[in-house]
Amino acid sequence: MIPGTSKEGLVVHLLKDVWLIARFDLVTAIRTKRALLAILVYALGAFLTAAALVQIDAKIGDRLELVKSMANVSVPLKVEGQADQSTSVVKALSFLVGGDEDLVLHLLQIPLVVLGFFWTTLTFLPFLIALVSHDLVNIEVRNRSARFILLRTSRAALLLGKTVSHLLLFLSVTVVSNLVLCAYAWNASPSFDLWITSRLLLRFWLLTIPYGFCFLALTALVSSLVDGGAASLAANAIALIAISMLSMNDTIGLLSPSFYKLGLWSPRFLDVLGSSAAFLVFGTLFLSGAYARLRGRDL
Q1: Distance CA 175, CA 280 (A)
Q2: Whether residue 95 is found in the same domain as residue 202
Q3: 259 and 136 together in one domain
Q4: For residues 132 and 34, is the Cβ–Cβ distance under 8 A?
Q5: Domain range for residue 115?
Q6: pLDDT tens digits for 21-69?
Q7: Could you say which DSSP state residue 134 is in?
Q8: Residues 136-156, mean pLDDT to the nearest whole number
Q9: Is 1 part of any domain?
Q10: Model-level pTM?
Q11: Which end of the chain has fewer beta carbons closer than 10 Å to its terminal beta carbon, N or C?
């Protein structure tokens, strides 16, 4: 500790440095068109997703409503001695979500356009983060700018500032994408309910914060371990695929952050809270690993 400086003063100084670095890095991203690229890619993805889902909803919307009514009906529907149709539908769909019938009933009440977009976000956001942020740390090492920055601040402030700037970038990207999705679906779908859709999109957007933080921290860790830009991008892609495959293992799947994605869909608050906490814990571990690597390097 610096003589005559309290711990609170050091924390305030660290936070000021983090925000200064984050603001500068975000402005740099905008000037170099990196932010614009990320926004355009994700907004285009949102538009194409909305267009596809609106078309699907127009074609099978009536069938979806029938499935919903069958799932919610309280009186058993018997057809030629067959088992209860509503139960059969729910059980068939629950196979896709680990046998959780309550989750199926919950998902059936969510508009298709919201379901599809959140699934797209959970699937492709980590890869967009890897594409845009793969050199989050190593670019400062390669061009030797880190040594000049560290004359005025700490390595922790450098890492946290860069992470905060990229997190703000991706939160902005998802906001724009949600607006694009809403605008298109509202204009193209006669059955679109703005209030219900906006409320659900806000809920799922909030859940992308811990989710995005986790995979941004993973990108920071890979970037701190691999110096080359192309090499770190490739390593990131391999890491994402490995994490996804690991989550499918019944024995050690808990060690993968992707294992907890399903909990974000749950109607149960504790499940959602647990999954969000898991992503925050994994993100903290990844970021701690990146800091340990950065701290041990000769810059």
Answers
A1: 21
A2: no
A3: yes
A4: yes
A5: 7-62+110-296
A6: 999 888 887 777 766 777 777 777 777 877 787 777 666 655 555 555 5
A7: T
A8: 80
A9: no
A10: 0.85
A11: N
